[in-house]
Amino acid sequence: MIVVEHLSKTFKIQQREAGFQNAVKSFFKREYREIRALNDVSFTIPDGEIVGYIGPNGAGKSSTIKVLSGILTPDSGTCQINGNTPWKNRVAHVKDIGVVFGQRSQLWWDIPVIDSFYLLKDIYQVPENVFQETLRDLSQMLNLSDVLKTPTRQLSLGQRMRCEIAASLLHRPKILFLDEPTIGLDAISKVAVRDFITKINKEFQTTVILTTHDMQDIEKLATRIILIGKGTILLDGSLAEFKALKQHEEDTLDEILVNLYQKYDI
Ligand SMILES: Nc1ncnc2c1ncn2[C@@H]1O[C@H](COP(=O)(O)OP(=O)(O)OP(=O)(O)O)[C@@H](O)[C@H]1O
């Protein structure tokens, strides 16, 4: 169970005008602008749910995932995930969660994928027999046997993403945070990733929070949608409720979303 209450996070960004004079000026007097990345964010997610966490660029999606993973400490608010506060009980918390940031890698770049997996096994202290069993299952489900001996830097994006997802699940977490897991993937890889997420959710009741700009991911996977804009939760409901917001019969999910962005001016 994930319980998030009144999370807020503000970033201070250094600013200066272009040009040499302004560079010198800013060396002596720094000017900052504040960005409220999260503004009083609250939601509760029961075990086994797949939530689509959507919103425009810069809305606060990754910041939320970072707070929930314990990477970022909020300015205020609380978060309890299976009884742990992510940024306080980090060691206990990371055993419960898997995280994939589509734009970053958790695999070591120059070594074969299987070696990265063994390093993660040691980091998470996964017993040998559990590791072998999980590795076999994940390799089968994600079709990894051909790529395990390849260094990460030589993998295609789709191959790497399948390895990233496997890496996040080697310690059998109950909760999976996926930040843009299908970004840049071709149709075959997208479908493979979506099928896999559906499968682990059905088989192991894994709770999934998924951020994506691909509304087909949402349609295929999410039973619930949370819309965030300018750091504020604007909508929280079922996929059916989201679809019911269409203005014309032929509106796609993207068009419903664009209408909402316009309505909320985000
Ligand atoms: N480390 C940081 N320092 C300063 N500002 C940041 C930092 N991380 C995020 N921000 C700002 O916080 C806001 C929310 O960013 P965030 O990455 O959470 O958005 P997002 O919804 O994930 O966007 P996208 O869809 O583009 O990935 C943005 O305005 C961003 O510039």
Structural commentary:
Residues 18-255 form the ABC transporter domain. Keywords: ATP-binding, Nucleotide-binding, Transport. This is ABC transporter ATP-binding protein. The protein is of the alpha/beta class and 266 residues long. It has one domain: 3-Layer(aba) Sandwich (Rossmann fold). The chain is 40% helix and 26% strand. It contains ten helices and nine strands. The protein is globular. The model has no long low-confidence stretch (mean pLDDT 94). The site of adenosine-5'-triphosphate has 12 residues, from β1, β2 and α2.
Helix content: 25-40%
Large-scale geometry: globular
User: Helix-strand pattern, N to C?
Assistant: EHEEHEHEHHHEHEHEEHH
Return Rg in Å.
Answer: 20 Å
**Number of helical regions:** 10
Under CATH, the topology can be stated as: Rossmann fold
Strand order of the largest sheet: 5-6-7-3-8-9
What hetero molecules are in the model?
Answer: adenosine-5'-triphosphate
Total individual domains: 1
**Structural class based on helices, strands and sheet pairing:** alpha/beta
- In the CATH hierarchy, the architecture is 3-Layer(aba) Sandwich
User: β content, as a range?
Assistant: 25-35%
The overall average pLDDT, rounded, is 94
Largest sheet: number of strands, sense, barrel closure: 6 strands, mixed
The CA-CA distance between the termini, in Å, is: 29 Å
Domain ABC transporter: 18-255
InterPro entries: AAA+_ATPase, ABC_transporter-like_ATP-bd, ABC_transporter_ATP-binding, P-loop_NTPase
Keywords: ATP-binding, Nucleotide-binding, Transport
Protein name: ABC transporter ATP-binding protein
